[in-house]
């Protein structure tokens, strides 16, 4: 980036990192607090009741809440994330099939097949940077599942762009501008694909994600413009590739606490689910979520005027000792003892995905993380010396090395 290019100021609040809101709340020994952010009054909340408060459309709206640089990299302009009310409900219907069991099973089938195709190549390499390797595997698998045509020689560039869009959303500087370029390249490419499908030049498999996006109609009855259709197609493909972060974390957990690998290899399905939930709870991904107050609001005696910011402390809630015993211990067993409460475990948002903004890809994420963690546990490997620190002032963070593994044998 040129040294004269302005740093988007709204990113500054994200670069404070994962400990920012939890530290402020700890200092107050409270679950809510008032702040001033970028010159605006803000209310920070946490806890299952606060989740319901935050997801009530009468309290919090999303339009105009997300910083421009986040929309320009992570979600895309006009994305479902930025809509409210009827417009949101109509657009969200496009994503609801992702919640169904056949989407969870279908995506896992294609992505584990892509993993199995990649393993022989990994065996020829001395070291495999798992974060990058999983990015390519998931890109191949999710495109096949979603009906998006992708030549083998295009896979690596697409994977790199999808990872860049996630990696650069919260950071001023080179990572941010790389993310913008990646998004603009892929919106053009996916937009052209939508136009080709609509003209009949490319055939989209019946009822595939590609076909549904191309024929979707908004609340007004109009079809999506090719650019917005591209944005929403990317809103399925891109976050699926973001599984790279969680798989790198799963590898980190298997290395630090090897007993988990033994239990995953035993084929205990309930344990695999619990392990996936604990990876999503324990490791940092989304630091917080934000919206704007629809009207003057009061929460636990704290006020925020209409238009003020309301922030839900996601990372803090997933580590709140009021909700979790030994929150900083990695213990999948906690989810065998008690299944995750809807508004308690919120790495992908809270409340109901059918009616609110909660992530519609959560069941897919859990299914894929279970399947890929089991594949990883079945893959004899060692973890050579490397920098495994996970810096909490980097958003999104990951093991600094990208999680390097060295294969020592054929999959079990
Ligand atoms: C929304 C996290 C995977 C599609 C969200 C939100 C979070 C999130 C925090 C915002 C919730 C809110 O604003 O209230 C994640 C993480 C993932 C993941 C950490 C795994 C690494 C997926 C997958 C898909 C997906 C696999 C699709 C296949 C979406 C969409 C939204 C969303 C479309 C917007 C929903 C709306 O605004 O109504 N996700 N997600 N995500 N996610 Fe995910």
UniProtKB/TrEMBL annotation:
Its cofactor is heme. InterPro entries: Cyt_P450, Cyt_P450_E_grp-I, Cyt_P450_sf. One of its GO terms (biological process) is sterol metabolic process. It comes from the Bacteria. Keywords: Heme, Iron, Metal-binding, Monooxygenase, Oxidoreductase. Transmembrane segments: none annotated. Heme binds at residue 359. Pfam families: p450. GO terms for molecular function: heme binding; iron ion binding; monooxygenase activity; oxidoreductase activity, acting on paired donors, with incorporation or reduction of molecular oxygen. Belongs to the cytochrome P450 family. This is Fatty-acid peroxygenase.
């Amino acid at each position: 980036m040129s040294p004269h290019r302005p740093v988007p100021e709204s990113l500054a609040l994200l670069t404070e990192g994962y400990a920012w809101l939890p530290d402020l709340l700890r200092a107050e020994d409270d679950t809510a607090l008032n702040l001033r952010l970028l010159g605006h009054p803000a209310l920070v909340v946490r806890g299952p009741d606060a989740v319901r408060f935050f997801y009530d459309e009468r309290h919090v709206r999303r339009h105009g809440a997300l910083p421009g640089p986040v929309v320009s990299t992570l979600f895309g302009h006009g994305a479902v994330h930025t809509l409210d009310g009827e417009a949101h409900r109509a657009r969200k219907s496009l994503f609801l099939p992702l919640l169904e069991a056949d989407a969870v099973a279908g995506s896992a089938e294609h992505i584990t097949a892509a993993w199995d195709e990649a393993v022989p190549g990994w065996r020829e390499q001395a070291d495999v940077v798992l974060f990058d390797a999983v990015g390519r595997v998931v890109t191949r698998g999710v495109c096949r599942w979603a009906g998006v045509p992708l030549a083998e020689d295009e896979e690596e560039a697409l994977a790199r762009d999808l990872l860049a869009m996630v990696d650069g959303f919260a950071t001023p500087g080179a990572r941010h501008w790389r993310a913008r370029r990646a998004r603009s390249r892929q919106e053009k490419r996916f937009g052209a694909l939508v136009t080709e499908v609509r003209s009949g030049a490319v055939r989209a498999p019946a009822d595939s994600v590609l076909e549904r996006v191309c024929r979707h109609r908004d609340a007004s009855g109009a079809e999506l413009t090719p650019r917005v259709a591209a944005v929403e197609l990317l809103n399925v493909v891109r976050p699926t590739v973001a599984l790279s972060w969680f798989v790198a974390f799963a590898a980190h957990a298997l290395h630090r606490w090897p007993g988990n690998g033994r239990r995953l290899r035993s084929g205990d399905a309930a344990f695999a689910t619990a392990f996936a939930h604990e990876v999503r709870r324990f490791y940092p991904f989304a630091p917080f979520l934000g919206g704007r107050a629809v009207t003057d609001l009061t929460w636990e005696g704290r006020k925020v005027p209409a238009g003020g910011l309301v922030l839900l402390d996601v990372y803090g809630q997933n580590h709140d000792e009021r909700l979790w015993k030994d929150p900083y211990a990695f213990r999948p067993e906690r989810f065998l003892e008690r299944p995750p409460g809807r508004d308690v475990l919120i790495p992908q948002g809270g409340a109901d995905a059918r009616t609110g903004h909660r992530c519609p890809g959560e069941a897919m994420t859990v299914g894929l993380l279970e399947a890929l963690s089991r594949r990883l546990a079945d893959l004899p490997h060692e973890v050579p010396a490397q920098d495994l620190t996970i810096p909490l002032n980097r958003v999104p963070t990951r093991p600094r090395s990208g999680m390097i593994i060295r294969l020592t044998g054929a999959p079990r």
